[in-house]
């Protein structure tokens, strides 16, 4: 069960997925709040965020992980990811331009499965990492 | 259970291995579709049963990070197991820390997928605290708590996805 996009034999270590670039808006955060149920006011209430000492509202970490996940499944195909892990390195801010970077770091076979390991990052236009993580996909 | 005199270290050691609760969720098409839009996916697979079928799925699948959000929309009261543990070990450890101030941060998140989560699934989640510790960093006390939820198919019992998250309290 999985979308066929990438074949194991065609992938090489060092290959990079197409980059997804997105300028973060407050509407993204409101939409994510509604879809996920995370109504922490730091992510949608500018008044509350500033009262708490933040310059503005800031993005949900899980919005960033979701966006990077969309870039990941666009590359390896929906249904093929067996592991996806990130560390939340920095907050994201409205108007920042976020870009995905997904690089093939290894190919291996385990228990009859053909696996591709990937390094995944989401960073802003200044090159500051927001998410740093790893993923594995099972390909045919 | 720790009393007021117990050190924070003892409190943290005491919550390792403790259950955080069992919950049951239903995976529904409308909420999965909204979630896919909210994480800016453009794949038709999350919207169209035909596209999902053409890609080899038995039903519309959910995006990768959906398991973190699915309790919000799909945890209906009448299907919840009755054996909910008393008290939440996360709050046992974090409650007293938060009372003194500081910040709670989501440090890391990991998902291990055994099969895709599909619309129509009824999933049973069993949560456990798998680690809890403190360390000093730049003069601040950082408390780390790792919580894991194993989601399985409520009908067949097969494992579906394991979600692991790492919360940090920064004093």
Give a quick rundown of the structure:
Chain A has 140 residues and is of the alpha+beta class. Chain A is 24% helix and 34% strand. Chain A has helices spanning 26-36, 46-51, 61-76, and strands at residues 21-23, 81-88, 97-110, 113-123, 129-139.
**What is the H/E string of chain B?**
HEHHHHEEEE
Biggest beta sheet summary of chain A: 5 strands, antiparallel
The low-confidence parts of chain B are none
End-to-end separation of chain A: 11 Å
| CATH fold-level assignment of chain A | Thiol Ester Dehydrase, Chain A
Helix fraction of chain B by DSSP (H/I, runs of at least 4): 25-40%
Largest sheet of chain B: 5 strands, antiparallel
Any descriptors?
heterodimer; A: alpha+beta; Thiol Ester Dehydrase, Chain A; 5-stranded antiparallel beta sheet; B: 171 residues; alpha+beta; 5 helices; 5 strands; elongated
How would you describe this protein?
The complex is a heterodimer of chains A (140) and B (171). Chain A has a single domain, classed as Thiol Ester Dehydrase, Chain A (Roll), CATH 3.10.129.10. Helix content of chain A is 24%, strand content 34%. Chain A is built from three helices and five strands, in the order βαααββββ. The model of chain A has no long low-confidence stretch (mean pLDDT 97). Chain B is of the alpha+beta class and 171 residues long. Chain B has a domain at 8-27 and 74-170: Thiol Ester Dehydrase, Chain A. Chain B contains five helices and five strands. A five-stranded antiparallel β-sheet of chain B has the order 1-3-4-5-2. The longest helix of chain B has 11 residues, at 89-99. Chains A and B meet through helix 1, helix 3 and strand 2 of A and helix 2, helix 4 and strand 2 of B. Strand 2 of chain A pairs antiparallel with strand 2 of chain B.
Secondary-structure topology with pairs:
The complex is a heterodimer of chains A (140) and B (171).
Chain A: E1 21-23, H1 26-36, H2 46-51, H3 61-76, E2 81-88, E3 97-110, E4 113-123, E5 129-139
Antiparallel strand pairs in A: 1-3, 2-5, 3-4, 4-5
Chain B: H1 8-15, E1 19-26, H2 29-38, H3 49-54, H4 66-74, H5 89-99, E2 103-113, E3 122-137, E4 140-153, E5 159-170
Helix pairs in contact in B: 1-5
